[in-house]
């Protein structure tokens, strides 16, 4: 019955010897039966089943449900290869599902067709799309996007007013547009509006004053976008959402001021969800990374970093996601104010949460499972197949060696991007096997899956 070779392409097997953890269960000794790529049973260790079903030994490992990165960006790497490189990168980090944003002014009917032409034959993990809402056409066609393409989340940039979004080809909008967007979204059951919260009028004035500095730093970048500009727009987004009955998701929250406002509002209106990113758990504006660390929102103070950990602990933050942008290092090595924003991040999410969270007593493994599996699955309408190890779900696993210490070496992780914020650092706790629908796609740092093995996730609102 045992298969000592641990066959990587078996869609039916028994996972033996792992401690299984999910959003509802602390790690327990349990075997898991997989039949044709689906979870078929969670068994008492050693339970005898059909002897023709091979075993996959996982002794000494933690078995999470397959991880979900709900926030990455397509369109910033080489178009012909980015779905391959960035989903390899995701698999290296233990992720079996990614949800990527598109920031376009055009009709998403054309965008969807074009991007699927690239993605379907290249993705190594399962994938879905978020669309941005940038003009009247997008509001008018939102019901069609939901019904026809299974896209149930739409991003709105509160900062893209005037010419601010022009570098991405996006029109400027205003609060009237935002009002109409939320009003229409509220009519569509299960649709979420992802709100980038930033008061750009204040940012523009502050940024103009700071751009004359001879040697700007990450602290100056943070001064151009102070916590008030995030918190005030969070309040405005939540007020609009409550008044109109819409569901909103606030990505990459970074400040105590904003998180405190979210906590207050959640006591009066429940349809608000919040995300933070690993870099807001590990970096402050005192970092010496220079333009390499330029992001939006910027790195914050040490107190804000503490606040993000507190939000993970008390449940006021629901999801950790990467905001992954696979640009080359060369795009960062420019005069400070012209350097690109964002950086790669998917593959290092779990090591950050394990090394800086679990091993330092800040987070339980169960809480990490909530943040990276169950919560993103439920918020973004993939809970029928993803987010847990319940019977009938896809047999997606992330097998983790909690004691494995490994240095972050960007070239080993597979992204088009050629650097990492964490380059040279050592983290304790790494994924050693990624299993997608019963098939191993990464084992001990080696990609064993196939391009095109990932499937598109048609997300049905509920």
Give structural notes:
The strands form three sheets. Strands 8-9-10-11-12-13-14-15 form an eight-stranded parallel sheet. It has 462 residues and is of the alpha/beta class. The chain has two domains: 13-63 and 393-447, Roll (Urease, subunit C, domain 1); 67-379, TIM Barrel (Alpha-Beta Barrel), CATH 3.20.20. It contains twelve helices and 19 strands. Helix content is 30%, strand content 22%. The two termini are 41 Å apart. Strand 8, helix 1 and strand 9 (95-102) form a beta-alpha-beta unit.
> What's the count of strands?
19
* Spatial separation of the terminal alpha carbons: 41 Å
Query: For the record, what CATH class of the largest domain applies?
Result: Alpha Beta
Output the structural class.
alpha/beta
Low-pLDDT segments: 1-9
State the share of residues found in helices, binned by percent. Answer: 25-40%
Total DSSP helices: 12
CATH architecture of the largest domain: Alpha-Beta Barrel
- Multimeric organization: single chain
Major β-sheet annotation: 8 strands, parallel
Strand order of the largest sheet: 8-9-10-11-12-13-14-15
In round numbers, the mean pLDDT is: 94
Which descriptor suits the 3D outline? globular
- Look up the CATH topology of the largest domain: TIM Barrel
Let me know the CATH homologous superfamily of the largest domain.
Metal-dependent hydrolases
Radius of gyration, in Å, reads 21 Å
